[in-house]
Amino acid sequence: MSDSSRREALKRIGLAGAALGGAVVTAKLAYDPGGFGLAEAAGKREVRDFRIHAPGSAADPVFAIAKSTTDPAELVRRAVAALGGMKRFVSRGDVVAVKPNIGWDRMPVHAANTNPLVVAEVVKLAFDAGAKEVIVTDASCNEANRCFQRSGIWRATYAVGANVILPSAHRFRDMRMKGEVLDQWPVYLPLVNADKVINVPIAKHHNLSKFTCGMKNWYGILGGRRNRLHQNIDVSIADLATFMRPTLTIVDATRVLLRNGPQGGNIDDAKDMHQVIAGLDQVAVDAYSCTLIGESPANVRYLKLGHERGIGNMFWQQVPHVEV
Amino acid sequence: MNEELPAPIPWLGNAGKVAPLDRVEAAAATPQLIQIRKAAKSAPAPALYAATSASATMTNSGGPSAPTKPKPVAKKRPGSGIPARKVIRILVWVRRAAQVGFLGLFLYFLASTAFRGTFAATAGEPVRLPLPVEGFLLADPFVGAMTLLSTHTIYRGLAWSLVVLALTLVFGRVFCGWICPFGTLHHFFSWIFPSRYLRGNKRVETNRTHWWQAGKYYIMWGFIGAAVVGSSIGGLLDPICVAVRTIGLGVIPALQYFGVRSAAVVASSNVRTLQNATDTAQDFLARTVWTANQGYFHQTWLIVFFLVGVLFMNRFIPRFWCRALCPLGAFLGVFSRFSLFGMEKDHAKCTDCNLCLVNCQGADNPQGGVKHRQDECHMCLNCENACPEDVIKFRFLPKRTSTISKPDLQRRTLVAATAAGAVCIPGLRIANWPDKAYSEKVIRPPGAVEERAFLERCIRCAECMKVCPNNALHPAFFEAGIEGLWTPILIPRIGYCEFSCVLCGQVCPTGAIQKITEKQKMGIGQKPISVGTAMYDQGRCLPWAMATPCIVCEEFCPTSPKAIWPEAVEVPKRDSKYQKEGEQAAMLTVKVQRPHVDPGLCVGCGACEKVCPIVDKPAVYVTNAGETRSKTNVILLENTAYGQS
Ligand code: SF4
Ligand code: SF4
Ligand code: SF4
């Protein structure tokens, strides 16, 4: 056997051995025992709590109703000032996520989305309080570009320096809420990865849940097929409100949709009310706001569920509040 | 000496001689052969040399030190090495720039055929696209001619096609060689991707005019025949339509699919910086190249296969599509016979080096000894640029002695092709009865004209499908009959029609979908435009059949008042919790709202169908019943008006 042929033979044996070894290692690493995603069920329960934990006295107002002017921006300022000003909630350098309702392809006059002037004022206050970045976003129901543009919120908040993020598939990630009906669900990341979250819903009628405001507004953090939630809408809303505890809720009730909610579409279905409600307790502000459309909190089941779970107090009259 | 040239290694400098890619070595590598052949052909060789060098000096008179010039040039160019006229050399580069520019513009328009919103717009501003994204279709004279023949009108922007027609009458098929984005794509692929066998003599042979190049003329005449009897089916093969359809519905969504999947893999690494980088990249791409949501298009596989097929043919026959199939090229070929600009050849000087043929795009016989085929020529000017013997000259009002400017067709085949196109249409229509009642799946976009007029106008360009912000419009397969292949249909299960949107009408180049306003569509102060009617499948609907609350459909119904109204009822429901053996299941009473459709209010947008949680076969679905555009497909007596038609 010549030298070169021996070398050749060794080379071939080496290569064959390496190929076999590689195949064995691959098989070992990629081995699939079969069965259905057992690993998934083990996830930890996740909660997003953005509340401030500054001790105040028990007599401090928990929510404030501003109704002394017709200027939406001024209403926001007065309501927030009555709670101690935005500085109490936003610290220097914070990333603040503002979550208005931008669900529908409707204009401000239809009162299906949050009033852009209200949202813009919240953004401004957050910046004035020292926020590093203010994100404005929502996972819309209708086509998002159109909702953002025609609600007027894109333009109004962009003008005051907000980072307006349009929803797209890659910004959702599955999270485990371990609620009663909401277990694992895709969640819209910009809204849950901020330092502070301010919920800026609009108060309006809803045909299935009777009334929608702050707690129901968290539907906008969900992706996936949220149309299935309607089969148990009240519990799913309570689950969401358990998962999301905002820093502050600022309800736009400057113009309120009384019928045909949540989408509306008829100008006559909405009525000017010139109120803005800011509060720390999302159940209490929802309970108060629902009286604006002539509904009693006792009839809105998700408020009751929220109360029972200790998320807040549905008997808003008993909660310290001020009118300004 | 080794026959093989060493492979070029870029970082080692010019190690191997690399021939320019759109030129083939065969002829260039054997200058001796050419010398011999030339000597044999023309006896007074010295005289020829004298003449050619004289003309070289003449054409180069603009440059400095003309007499010393031929020497360095002669090294690069084979044969007599006479350089092309400077103007031609410049024009070839201008042409390349124009091709790149127009292809870029086309792709830019195509990517912009999507509504992405803007922070600058006020809430009340009507939503329209800022760019004339359908511009290339408007400038397409074949589209203009087809719709003129079928509708006897020229719809709005299609008047722009006169510009391309005028250009053709002056310069010949410059559109094909300089402008057409689809042609440029083929040019590019035949340059970057030629088969190993497409070299030297093989390439020369391929680039001679072939009989099958007449095919495109017969295709074109067939489509013209179809147009005369009222069908713009020719859009199936119009190159601009093909380009929009294949790239818009196939290539871009596929890139998105691939891009999003790759980004997901990168993001799953859980490295923050990597995740942020992919997020930023995806945001950027969603706002420029594709859209925020993945586009899905019904049966696009056929459309994509078609594209891959014709692009692949470039490996064997450069610009096969343009030479053999393109009806627009054929249409312009017919008109190029009148063009003022053209080629003149000096056959006597030709040495048969065939360099012109190697570089020819249109396969139009640029070489000496045969007549030039003006109708096949793309006016790329490669032949004059390549010719080392000063044979070919492009000029205004050339002598026609060495040119055939008319397409080389057999009159009878031509008549037969036209007639075949004309008789096909009634045949197809009898089989699929568009006038009577067609498939319930044929839900046309809002603002579409009545079906017969629609087929007169629709060129299957897919602009509407590309622009639809909700991915609601799809190319039909055989839902609308064979004739209706690739015409738009609304598939609400994939995407519903956004109530206030009128974008598909805005981009439709032929008026198959009219340019309606939001007020007309939503019915503000008038009857809204309806594309169909929603129907309930009460055996599948949760409140109807399963005593389970739902009415998501009602929530999404955009009309005001809503076309869906819920009826509150109390219904029995069996408790599905586990029962002990032998025990009766407990019965509960639950309150549900059962949805009903008001056919007088429903606009058929399909929002209800889209959001119904029963995914596979929704409990509420839209069919084209009661569509506004039809006088026969009516449900309600109140909408029936026989007197009008
Ligand atoms: S089908 Fe509807 S949503 Fe799609 S482009 Fe046309 S009008 Fe817009
Ligand atoms: S199709 Fe459905 S959502 Fe659209 S108008 Fe009709 S009922 Fe309403
Ligand atoms: S969304 Fe579907 S299941 Fe739900 S009420 Fe409507 S039709 Fe029935």
Task: Please give a structural write-up.
The complex is a heterodimer of chains A (324) and B (645). Chain A is an alpha/beta fold and 324 residues long. In chain A, 30% of the residues lie in helices and 20% in strands. Chain A contains nine helices and 14 strands. Chain A is elongated, with a radius of gyration of 26 Å. Helices cover 42% and strands 8% of the residues of chain B. In chain B, the strands form five sheets. In chain B, strands 1-3 form a two-stranded antiparallel sheet. In chain B, strands 2-4 form a two-stranded parallel ribbon. The interface between A and B is large, with 43 and 51 residues. Bound molecules: iron/sulfur cluster (3 copies). One iron/sulfur cluster is lined by residues 534, 556-557, 559, 563-564, 597, 602-608, 622 of chain B.
Q: Layout of helices and strands, plus pairs?
A:
The complex is a heterodimer of chains A (324) and B (645).
Chain A: H1 3-29, E1 48-49, E2 63-66, H2 72-82, E3 95-100, H3 116-128, E4 133-136, H4 144-150, H5 153-159, E5 163-164, E6 172-176, E7 184-188, H6 189-192, E8 196-200, E9 202-206, E10 210-212, H7 233-243, E11 244-245, E12 248-257, E13 270-279, H8 282-290, H9 301-308, E14 321-323
Helix pairs in contact in A: 2-3, 3-5, 7-9
Chain B: H1 25-29, H2 31-41, H3 45-59, H4 70-76, H5 86-111, H6 135-138, H7 141-151, H8 161-171, H9 174-179, H10 181-192, H11 200-206, H12 215-228, H13 239-267, H14 272-288, H15 300-312, H16 320-325, H17 327-336, E1 341-345, H18 355-359, E2 372-373, H19 382-386, E3 392-396, E4 403-404, H20 411-432, H21 451-457, H22 463-467, E5 473-475, E6 488-490, H23 503-507, H24 518-522, E7 533-536, H25 542-545, H26 552-556, E8 564-574, E9 587-597, H27 607-611, E10 620-623
Helix pairs in contact in B: 5-10, 7-8, 7-12, 12-17, 12-20, 13-14, 13-15
The complex binds iron/sulfur cluster (3 copies).
Residues 445-446, 467-470, 472-473, 490, 497-498, 501-504 of chain B line the site of one iron/sulfur cluster (SF4).
